[in-house]
Every structure is written in structure tokens, then in C-alpha cells.
């Protein structure tokens, strides 16, 4: 069994306090995963997002924000269900994806929004 590559891109956590710097002020598009510890589908999609972060390193940033710990950002972006993925481009949300989905479908939706 091979060990995971710890030098590859990872899904970094952001908070209400770091959201502007870590998401809105980035040059690259940023996919933000609004999640919670109690949310089973959030745990299902987490490894998929980690794979995407590694595969799209250099062209897409992937971040996660705990909706329970960061209620301001959760409210400000109208997140009503978890997981909700928001794709930011130029500091603004351009696509909302609600719920867990297979990697291929998620990549197709991201590519369509970024295309």
C-alpha cells in the first residue's frame, strides 16, 4: 500500500475571519465546501474534494468551512443545506452545488462553470 503524498495540494480550512483573504482575494477559482461534523454526506464528499484539490492544483483551490463554526459566511452566502459547494471566480460566487455527488459529475459541473 502506498503512502499518500503529503506534499500535494490539500483542502485548507477557512473561517469567517479568513474567508475574504483565503477565498475572495485569490487569483485562482476557489471551490468552497460548506460542511458540518454531523453531516454524513459531507464526509462522503470530503475525499472526492481532496482528490480534486490534488488533480487541479495550480488551476483551482479547494477550501472547506465548517458551517456551525462560521455562521456569518454561511448566512451571507445563503447556505441552507449541507454540503453546499460554492465556486468563486474573481471573488464572487458563480456556481452553487448542493449535496454530494460522484466525482465525474462534480468535475463536469465545475468544468461547465469555469469553461
UniProtKB/TrEMBL annotation:
Keyword Cell inner membrane: no
Protein keywords: Disulfide bond, Electron transport, Redox-active center, Transport
Chloroplast as UniProt keyword: no
Any one GO biological process: cell redox homeostasis
Site (Contributes to redox potential value): 40-41
InterPro entries the record matches: Thioredoxin (IPR005746), Thioredoxin-like_sf (IPR036249), Thioredoxin_CS (IPR017937), Thioredoxin_domain (IPR013766)
Deprotonates C-terminal active site Cys (site feature) positions: 33
Cellular-component GO terms for this entry: cytosol
Active site: 39 (nucleophile), 42 (nucleophile)
Residue spans crossing the bilayer: none
Any one GO MF annotation of this record: protein-disulfide reductase activity
Pfam families from the UniProt entry: Thioredoxin
Entry's family note: Belongs to the thioredoxin family.
PANTHER family linked: GEO12009P1 (PTHR45663:SF11)
Name of the molecule in the record: Thioredoxin
Organism: Prauserella muralis
Organism ancestry: Bacteria, Bacillati, Actinomycetota, Actinomycetes, Pseudonocardiales
Amino acid at each position: 500500500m502506498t503512502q499518500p503524498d503529503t506534499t500535494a495540494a490539500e483542502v485548507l480550512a477557512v473561517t469567517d475571519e479568513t474567508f475574504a483573504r483565503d477565498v475572495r482575494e485569490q487569483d485562482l477559482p476557489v471551490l468552497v465546501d460548506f460542511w458540518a461534523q454531523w453531516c454524513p454526506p459531507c464526509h462522503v464528499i470530503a475525499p472526492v474534494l481532496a482528490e480534486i484539490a490534488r488533480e487541479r492544483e495550480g488551476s483551482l483551490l479547494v477550501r472547506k468551512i465548517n458551517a456551525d463554526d462560521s455562521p456569518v459566511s454561511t448566512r451571507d452566502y445563503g447556505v441552507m443545506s449541507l454540503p453546499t459547494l460554492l465556486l468563486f471566480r474573481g471573488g464572487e460566487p458563480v456556481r452553487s452545488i448542493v449535496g454530494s455527488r460522484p466525482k465525474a459529475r462534480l468535475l463536469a459541473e465545475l468544468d461547465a462553470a469555469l469553461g
